[in-house]
Write a structure and sequence with these properties.
The complex is a heterodimer. Chain A is built from 20 helices and 39 strands. By secondary structure, chain A is of the alpha+beta class. In chain A, helix 5 crosses helix 6, helix 6 packs antiparallel against helix 9 and helix 7 packs across helix 8. The chains are: A alpha+beta, B alpha+beta. The complex binds zinc ion.
Chain lengths: ~800, ~325
């Protein structure tokens, strides 16, 4: 909502400086977003002196003027009849934006360059005179800005109104707040009674067929009107708040709406069939052409203003082209109605059409303000449009609005706010904004809010008003007294924090990507058509294609992050992210939200340094991270198995492990599929892991238990066996453990070797076995016996041989 | 006898002094102080002396043993300090073998700081779904369908009744549905609004706060938030509460913090106002309590919502909120 200081001063004295006013309004809840000078558009208009006038060689009516604009003289082509040498006039320089929106540029006029424009009052919206250039009196210096030469100054406040304050969608509404702040009374515009004339009832009638949508409809009729341009004062008011003047009739309806918040509409009475108004809902499929020349398709919930035959306006939203005020209009029917806010909002939303009128109706206008605004507009039309006002007004009001008093408990108010407020305190706050306050009993006030405060319906609304006017910052700052009981910390949160700490400890960097992804990511990840990750939840109104569905995997986000970093020449990345994925159960139901953790390692294991050569990371690096994470989460029976090829869609077959714990799959670790790399435009290998936190949570609940430390020393024996290359090395350890030999404390794989002298198709695997007894120090011969036995069983189990 | 031991001593000291290496010094040490060494022998033979001579001789011999031990140690140290081993060194300027830890995203770091402060004030943490029904995101919070207040937040829709939550406030409702008062809880999390420019990203993070009980007042809200800001920034960071409107609180307030950059003098960060809007708050609207079945005659409460990106930007001097989600390694590395 924009409002100019000079307009406000029509209704309230303002002695404060404009910045103080702005901050006082802000602290009263009307946030002033900006304060600008309404003459800012004159920035490039300066005082010019015509030094010399000569004829234009190619146009009889035009003259060439040499104009002194403070610096070196410039040439201006001018057609004004009143120019003579040595006069001072406003000179618009290139770049000037006129109130009508046009921008002045240096231009060629009939073969002569014009480097500026000498302006009339009207052209600069400084007055009505458009007969010739505006001649400046006095002796202002050439080149001075016209605004300072004429001491033009008026501030415009832009106020960001919250949706509850519909009463402030008017200059009077804001003036009321300023009056309350300054503890002054507001001066309402003088209400003149219209001259008694032939009664309006003889000309027209209003019938409301949908009272629930239109509880009140008032109308006045002005005849013998002359449609023309509005006078300067009226244009200036509208321009100051960013509205374009149209003609006197339309400008008056806009002016009154801006003044008191009641939207009005003016119909050309002669264009209303049967000269009457019917308020009804639209018929299904009915169409209507609005003032903006667009055809609108209506539905039966939309309220229409009709004449005897057809719709002439979409109620509260926009008038129709068929009854528009034209220069030929002689009789005007002014509408001032109260429409149901919900109905107007629905219509406006459905049509995608929001207007100054609909904006006010949907937030709720003053239900008792219709007739006042109507009379104000009608009288202005008689004055400005030379019209004659028909006697009386029509005021159809099938549903009467009652002012309902609200009880306000004084001590409850104090309890809610945390400050003792006495009766007089509250009373004076509320009375300053025109609330009617009576004493009900010792601790209760009976408060009747004015009709324009449609937002005040319960006692807490009154408490807020009292607090607001008392000043939030005058309420003491205190600490609460509250019971100290507390609950167990959220397990999901504890796990998430732990995971983040572990991974950062493992030198991974946390990333946060958007929860939306591009639908094409599924194809980029080579997902099969029945993959659960294709259960996409669509955003109906995404910002763009890249963010149109909710992610079903954290991998696309990490890959996008990798791509952005590569493009910044950062090629060594260790990243992880935790967050929800969303698996759709249909657009009409809440999706399944699953928390995941995913990581990506690309580039080097070691950066090249004085102690190491640059070495690329590989599968075992990322696997080590996952193992570290899992073991740090106090989970010790994780299992990595070869991922079946049909499940390796975005990772490379043969280079991917499925991670299971106690038989439950929790995710995967592997190398990214080369095709996926290409799809995401990535030029280097990358290794990823992806784990389900919800499942991990189920598995981490084991309590930690301390074990006794061994008392006796251990002995080790190594075995090297030659086995087929296809056998997974870990199966040797599993086999060893399966023997159930009690003296084996631990087994470690310490070497894998292929190539000469190991025969082709085979590999040698070396294992260290640690023997220890809990009861005694083991003797060599005892261990040797067991070891030989175990070696033989192992050789048998794998059809293996000892090295040559 | 005494002479002899003195002679031994003189001779030993002379030999020690001329020792050229650690090895030759060791040999001398063995020669005199070893198990079969001269001094050891001498000590062993004391028992053969007449009993009246024994104490004096023993005392003398032990004294000489100490002198020699000291001489050996001093010489050993001297020889070591002259050896190449003593002059070996590492280049301490070379970087150590890399063990750089990763780092938490700045949003995570600040979220943790915020949560820690409220936990110390006795709040619990709650979470809720990021995709919400219209009921929890709007209706239960006193924002009916077609209410103009819906324009305050640009909502992402999944269907007519399902939205990406526009704030963490739905968690308030879910918590109150489950727990009887008193309630004191904060709810951090991701929220979504259809808005994208230098100060807005379509996804961002909020912390919702809620305290409900008997006699919880607006003054208490001011107390908790002031304490929070003092701990998050510093004691000199004052707060300003100004009236505002949220459908689910009344009275409602926007809370401005004294600009951390200019301390109220006006700068680019605070658009010359000296104040920075950091959060919205208010007393829980009775309609919300009615929706969750709380007795509005007995209890009152306050709620607030803090924008985490905003706080993080102020803490770390970040000027573009989109940077948080670009995850440029060089950016993340800084925190
Ligand atoms: Zn500042």
């Amino acid at each position: 909502m924009k409002v100019s200081l000079s307009w406000l001063k029509d209704y309230v004295n303002i002695e404060m400086d404009v910045q103080d006013l702005a901050s006082a309004l802000t602290m009263a809840g009307l946030e002033v977003e900006s304060v600008t000078n309404s003459f800012d558009y004159l920035e490039n208009v300066v005082v010019g002196r015509i030094i010399e006038i000569s004829p234009h060689p190619n146009a009889e009516k035009l003259k060439l003027c040499r104009v002194d604009a403070g610096k070196s003289p410039i040439q201006v082509v001018c057609g004004a009849p009143n120019i003579v040498e040595n006069i001072l006039a406003p000179l618009a320089l290139p770049g000037t934006v006129f109130p009508d929106g046009s921008i002045l540029q240096t231009c060629d006029i009939r073969g002569k360059i014009s480097e500026g424009m000498l302006c009339s009052e009207r052209e600069l919206e400084l007055g009505d005179d458009k007969s010739g250039v505006m001649i400046l009196s006095g002796t202002p210096e050439t080149g001075t800005k016209i605004s300072s030469a004429l001491s033009l100054s008026d501030f415009v406040l832009e106020i960001g109104l919250t949706p509850n304050r519909s009463d402030c969608l008017s200059v009077l509404g804001i003036a009321r707040e300023i009056a309350a702040i300054q503890k002054l009374k507001i001066k309402y515009p003088v209400k003149q009674q219209p001259d008694r004339n032939k009664d309006i009832q003889e000309y027209t009638s209003v019938r409301i067929e949908a009272p629930e949508h239109c509880p009140r409809y008032a109308a006045a009729l002005v005849t013998d009107i002359t449609v023309s341009e509005s006078p300067f004062w009226l244009r200036k008011r509208l321009i100051s708040i960013g509205q374009r003047p149209i003609n006197n009739i339309v400008d008056i309806t806009n002016f009154v709406m801006m003044e008191c918040g009641q939207p009005l509409h003016a119909f050309d009475f002669n264009l209303l069939a049967e000269n009457r108004i019917v308020v009804r809902t639209a018929e299904k499929g009915e169409t209507f052409v609005t003032l903006d020349q667009k055809e609108r398709i209506l539905d039966p919930e939309m309220l229409m203003i009709c004449d005897g035959k057809k719709p002439v306006a979409i109620a509260g939203v926009m008038g129709g082209l068929n009854s528009e005020i034209a220069n030929s209009t002689k009789r005007v029917l002014i509408e001032s109605a109260y429409f149901n806010p919900l109905n107007i909002r629905k219509t406006s939303k459905k049509l995608g059409l929001s207007t100054e009128a609909s904006y006010r109706f949907e937030r709720g206008i003053d239900p008792l303000g219709t007739v006042n605004a109507l009379v104000r507009a009608a009288l202005l039309m008689t004055k400005i449009g030379n019209g004659k006002l028909t006697g009386g007004v029509i005021d159809e009001n099938p549903l009467i609005h009652d002012l309902v008093p609200i009880e306000l408990n004084i001590s409850e108010t104090g309890r809610l706010l945390g400050i003792e407020m006495d009766r007089e305190n509250i009373k004076s706050c509320l009375e300053s904004i025109e609330f009617d306050v009576e004493n009900a009993d010792a601790d209760t006030l009976k408060v009747t809010p004015p009709s324009f405060r449609v937002d005040i319906t319960r006692s807490v609304d009154l408490m807020e008003e009292a607090a607001r006017l008392y000043g939030y910052n005058n309420i003491p700052t205190t600490m609460p007294f509250i019971h100290a009981e507390t609950t167990q910390p959220l397990k999901t949160l504890v796990l998430r924090d732990k995971i983040k700490n572990i991974l950062t400890g493992l030198s991974f960097m946390e990333a946060i990507n958007y929860s939306f992804i591009n639908e094409s990511s599924c194809d980029q990840l080579r997902l099969l058509s029945n993959d659960t990750k294709r259960k996409l939840l669509h955003v109906l109104n995404p910002i763009n294609e890249e963010q149109s569905v909710m992610r079903t995997s954290l991998i696309p986000g990490l890959l996008e992050t990798m791509r952005r970093n590569l493009s910044q020449q950062v090629r060594n990345l260790k990243l992880f992210e935790t967050g929800n994925i969303f698996l759709s159960r249909g657009q009409e139901t809440l999706p399944e939200e699953v928390e995941m953790v995913a990581g990506l390692w690309t580039g080097d294991r070691y950066n090249s340094a004085w102690y190491a050569k640059e070495t690329g990371c590989d599968f075992y690096d990322i696997k080590g991270i996952v193992e570290g994470l899992i073991s740090d989460l106090n989970i010790n029976n994780s299992c990595f198995t070869k991922m079946p090829s049909e499940l390796c869609r975005y990772t490379k077959q043969g280079h991917t492990a499925q991670v299971t714990i106690e038989g439950r799959p929790i995710g995967l670790v592997g190398e990214l599929h080369p095709e996926v790399l290409r799809n995401f435009d990535l030029k280097q290998r990358a290794f990823i892991f992806e784990l389900n936190c919800n499942t991990l949570l189920d598995l981490t609940n084991k309590a930690k238990k301390s074990k006794l430390l061994p008392k006796f020393p251990f002995t080790t024996r190594d075995i090297t066996v030659i086995i087929s290359k296809d056998i997974e090395a870990m199966s040797i350890l599993e086999k060893l453990n399966s023997f159930g030999e009690k003296l084996i404390e631990n087994t470690q794989l310490f070497d894998i070797f292929e190539g000469d002298p190991v025969p082709p198709g085979k590999k040698s695997v070396s294992v260290r076995i640690i023997y220890r007894s809990p009861e005694k120090t083991l003797e060599d011969n005892e261990v040797n016996g067991i070891h030989i036995d175990i070696t033989n069983r192992l050789l048998g189990a794998f059809n293996a041989s000892l090295p040559a | 006898m005494e002479n002899t031991i003195d002679q031994i001593c003189t001779e030993a000291l002379r030999e020690i002094e001329t020792a050229k290496s650690k090895d030759s010094l060791n040999a001398i040490s063995v020669k005199y102080l070893g198990r079969k060494g001269i001094v050891t022998q001498f000590l062993r033979n004391i028992s053969k002396l007449p009993s009246e001579e024994r104490p004096k001789a023993g005392e003398k011999a032990n004294e000489i043993k100490k002198i020699l031990e000291k001489a050996f140690e001093e010489t050993a140290n001297r020889l070591y300090s002259q050896s190449p081993e003593a002059h070996d060194f590492v280049d301490v300027s070379l970087p150590g073998r890399s063990a750089l830890p990763g780092s938490l995203h700045p949003i995570t770091q600040i979220t943790r700081q915020i949560c820690d402060i409220f936990i110390r004030m006795g709040f619990d943490i709650a979470e809720g779904p990021e995709i919400e029904s219209d009921y929890y995101n709007f209706e239960a919070l006193n924002i009916p369908k077609y209410h103009p207040a819906r324009d305050m937040q640009d909502t992402f829709y999944v269907s007519d009744n399902i939205v990406l939550r526009t704030h963490t406030s739905p968690v308030q409702v879910r918590v109150m549905e489950k727990c009887k008062p008193p309630v004191k809880v904060i709810a951090p999390g991701k929220v979504y609004r259809s808005d994208s420019d230098i100060t807005h990203t379509p996804m961002f993070h909020q912390v919702e706060g809620l305290m409900v009980g008997e006699n919880i007042s607006f003054g208490n809200l001011k107390g908790i938030l002031t304490n929070f800001v003092h701990l998050m920034f510093d004691e000199k960071t004052s707060l300003r509460f100004r009236p505002s409107f949220f459908p689910f609180t009344e009275p409602s307030a926007e809370v401005d913090m004294l600009c951390v950059m200019c301390r109220g003098n006006g700068c680019r960060i605070c658009s010359q106002t000296g104040w920075i809007e950091v959060l919205g708050a208010g007393m829980v609207h009775p309609a919300v309590f009615e929706n969750v079945g709380y007795d509005t005659t007995k209890i009152t409460g306050f709620a607030f919502g803090i924008g985490i990106e905003r706080i993080t930007m102020l803490k770390y001097g970040i000027d573009d909120t989109r940077k948080f989600f670009e995850n440029d390694f060089r950016f993340l590395r800084q925190f």
